[in-house]
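SEVERITY: medium
COMPONENT: batch folding queue
REPORTER: lab tech (J.R.)

DESCRIPTION
The queue accepted two submissions in a row. Attaching both inputs and their returned structure tokens so the on-call engineer can compare them side by side.

ATTACHMENT 1
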Amino acid sequence: MARDSLSVAARLLDRSALEETAAALDDAGKVLLVGNGFSAPPLHDAQLRLLTLGLTVHAPADVQAQQFVARSLGPVDVCLAGS
């Protein structure tokens, strides 16, 4: 079942978008991950993984805190939203 899910995901993956995202993350001074409900746990997992790469990552659970951090983002920073 997991193998089938990975196969489907690989076929649907937009490789150029993935490369653009990776480049943006590489250049980012700060990364904000936002999501609520069932979207939050995978984003918190992503936060830990991005932290291991040495990125400055914020993934506040509170909606108002997400807005505060978003307001502080600069032109090279990245916001990834999960839904």
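ATTACHMENT 2
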Amino acid sequence: MAELHELTALEQRDALRRGDVSPRELVAHYLERIRRFDDGHEGGLGAFVEVTGDAALVRAEALGDAEPCGALWGLAFGDKDLVARAGVPTRYGSRLHGLHGLHGGFVPTASDPEALVLDEAGGISLGKTNTPEFGLVGYTESDVAPPARDPWDARNGAGGSSGGAAVAVAAGLVSLAPASDGGGSIRIPAATVGVVGLKPSRGRVAVGSGMTGVGGLAVTGPIARTVADAALLLDALVDGRPYPFATGAPGSGPFLNAATADPGATRVAVTTVSPWDDDVDIALDPDAAAAVQHAAAVLQNDGCAIDDLAWRPRGYASLFGVLWRASAARMTLSAAELALVRPMTAYLVAEGRRLTAPQLLSGLSAAAEFERATIEEFAPFDAVLTPALAEPPQPVGSYDESDPERCFARQVQYAPYSSFVNVAGLPAIVVPVSRTAGGHPVSVQLIGRPGGEATIIALAARLERASGISGFPPGLE
């Protein structure tokens, strides 16, 4: 009989509802795995920065005494440590909010809307997952926690900024985890550790729509072991709530149905071009290129029409630089606080504050034009297939913040196919489709039309079924 962590979230859901397992048993199983593999010291995986085991068990007991209710009833997850949960220390990846930081540790008295939605869906939070400082970079290394490590090779980092969430899923510490993505922060770590990560359309998830941020970049979405599990969590996050903005993505859920649906006659474009190619030296790893070719062949054999996408976007590096710096400038950090944050944070805040109003308006205008042009370029296709990452996982400590501009360029070289999807506001999913000679999963990315999550979920599920890339890293079975 399979152990509980070997079951998918859907299988766990069904077992819970049949009464084959109780919420307490599932939570206790995961807490024991967290204790074994992620106990917070330097030898751990760096998935969780705070484990709330006692509270999770109390909630599990309460749920077990009630009738099953909600899409996630009895399922365990971890909150990304950028999301406030009442009574739980929230660090935001920064020593400004760490237990021994400038503010003596921050314990919120109210929960953010995302946490409330997941509670209403019947989920059980086991604690807070690791993130870099304020989620500003694409690697999960901070001053308040050990780095998040790739469970397939712990010498390497897990990517970011939702690195802890991706590690928790890949290592079997939870079956699914909510995360956020402002420039690839769901897809980069999910692809790094070989799990599924889905960035929704701008406006799709009311509690993390992207509509209130500079350029509409950051949205909330799922990381999970399987495409169907990611769809399950997306449905819980969407939760039937009315969209708070007129430009919200149109409804087409429940998305769980898409994981087993036939998308019909589907046209898929393939490209390895990134918008950074004219400004940064991008070298595509042979395994990443082979994964794209494999995925295209699988979809073509399954009846999809496959085309090459000939596009050459210009001026992207400049506009994204403006948006990223402006996003950091929104943080109201004093001079004393800036002296305590990491060099990359201080650099982005300082550069953002130097932006003039005309520069910001010009960047926003360029981003809107990039969104329009990209949607127009992609319009003939139901989905666009790209590499998920350009390079294999990088060793912990690879990103030298003493030279912030070089550090930023290295992040782009690692993941040049991510941030432009945020600027365009499109949905995208990463899914592992092949392995390296050493056995590490290699992923591809599918980008959909505006509001087109259902189509890319269906296509990703096809790839998942055909490729059969599953299982846990050695030692974590």
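NOTES FROM REPORTER
DSSP finds 15 helices and eleven strands in the chain.
No errors were logged for either attachment.
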